[in-house]
Design a protein that fits this description.
This protein has nine helices and eight strands. The longest helix has 14 residues. The relative contact order is 0.11. About 35% of the residues lie in helices and about 20% in strands. Helix 2 links the parallel strand 3 and strand 4. InterPro entries: DUF2161 (IPR018679). This is Restriction endonuclease.
C-alpha cells in the first residue's frame, strides 16, 4: 500500500530502532529521526522519503557531516516493482559507494510493517566518507539530550516543532501562573529552567510581559501556548506524579 505522507513511515522506524536499544526522537535539528544507543559512539540519523530520489540522497550526504551512522529510508511499494526508484540492487550499490545506509519499509493492510536494512552505513566500496563537523554534531546531540521526550513525527513539514527551547519556554510559562507577577529567580526555581531569565528577556514567542524591573507576568499568547501544547504539559505532570507516587492531576 502506498503512503500518502512521509510521517507514516516514522512510527515503524521508531519501533524498529527502539527494539534495538536506541532512544529515538523525531525532527532534531532538521533530521527526520535521531537515535542514541549507549553502546555506539555516533548518533543514528535517518532521513525519510516516500520514494528514493535525488533530494533524499543529497540530504543523506549532508547528514554525514553530523554522524557516520546515516540511513536513507523509503517505502517499498509492492505494486511498483518496475519503478526506477525501486531498483533495490542498484540503489543499494549506490548507497554503499557513498557510505550511506538504506532501509525499506513495507506496509500491509492487515499485518505489521516490515522494516528491512538493505545496507548499513560505512560500507564504502569506492570513494571516501565525508568528514564529520564536530561543532554541528555536538549541537545535534545537545538538542537531542535537552528534549524530555519525543513530541515530533519525523518527516513533518510546515508544522511547529517541539524543540528543547520551546520546551523550556513552556516550563517557564507553566511556572508563571496567570495573573501572578514573579521574578526571574522565582520562575527559575519553580520551573527548573536554569536560563529562565534569558528566556523571559528574549521573549521569543511573546509569552511573557515585563511589568517592572525584575517582574514578569504571562501574556494572553502565553496562555494560548500552554493550551496549544496541553498534551505535552500533561505528559510532564503524569511523569512527575508517577515519580512521586502520586495520582496525576486531572485536566
Amino acid at each position: 500500500m502506498a503512503v500518502q505522507h512521509e510521517t507514516e513511515l516514522y512510527a515503524p522506524l521508531k519501533v524498529f530502532f527502539e527494539e534495538r536499544g536506541y532512544v529515538v526522537r523525531g525532527e532534531v535539528k532538521h533530521c527526520d529521526l535521531v537515535g542514541i544507543h549507549p553502546d555506539r559512539q555516533h548518533p543514528l540519523i535517518v532521513e525519510i522519503k516516500k520514494t528514493f530520489n535525488l533530494p533524499l540522497l543529497l540530504q543523506g550526504l549532508e547528514r554525514q557531516k553530523l554522524s557516520q551512522e546515516v540511513y536513507l529510508a523509503v517505502e517499498r511499494n509492492r505494486s511498483k516493482k518496475g519503478a526506477h526508484n525501486q531498483r533495490w540492487g542498484d540503489l543499494t550499490g549506490l548507497c554503499r559507494r557513498l557510505g550511506l545506509g538504506l532501509i525499506t519499509i513495507t506496509l500491509f493492510k492487515t499485518k505489521s510493517p516490515f522494516v528491512e536494512i538493505l545496507c548499513s552505513p560505512g560500507e564504502v566500496t569506492n570513494g571516501s566518507s565525508r568528514k564529520i563537523t564536530k561543532k554541528r554534531s555536538e549541537r545535534l546531540l545537545y538538542e537531542f539530550n535537552e528534549r524530555s521526550g519525543d513530541y515530533n513525527v519525523g518527516g513533518s513539514h510546515g508544522t511547529k516543532l517541539m524543540t528543547s527551547y520551546r520546551e523550556k519556554a513552556l516550563r517557564v510559562a507553566l511556572a508563571l501562573k496567570v495573573g501572578v507577577e514573579m521574578s526571574p529567580r522565582q520562575i527559575r526555581d519553580q520551573s527548573g529552567v536554569g536560563n529562565a531569565a534569558a528566556i523571559l528577556q528574549h521573549n521569543y514567542y511573546g509569552w511573557f510581559h515585563r511589568v517592572a524591573r525584575g517582574r514578569y507576568t504571562l501574556t494572553p499568547e502565553g496562555v494560548e501556548g500552554l493550551a496549544q501544547y496541553a498534551a505535552v504539559v500533561a505528559g510532564w505532570q503524569r511523569t512527575a506524579a508517577a515519580a512521586e507516587g502520586q495520582e496525576p492531576p486531572e485536566n
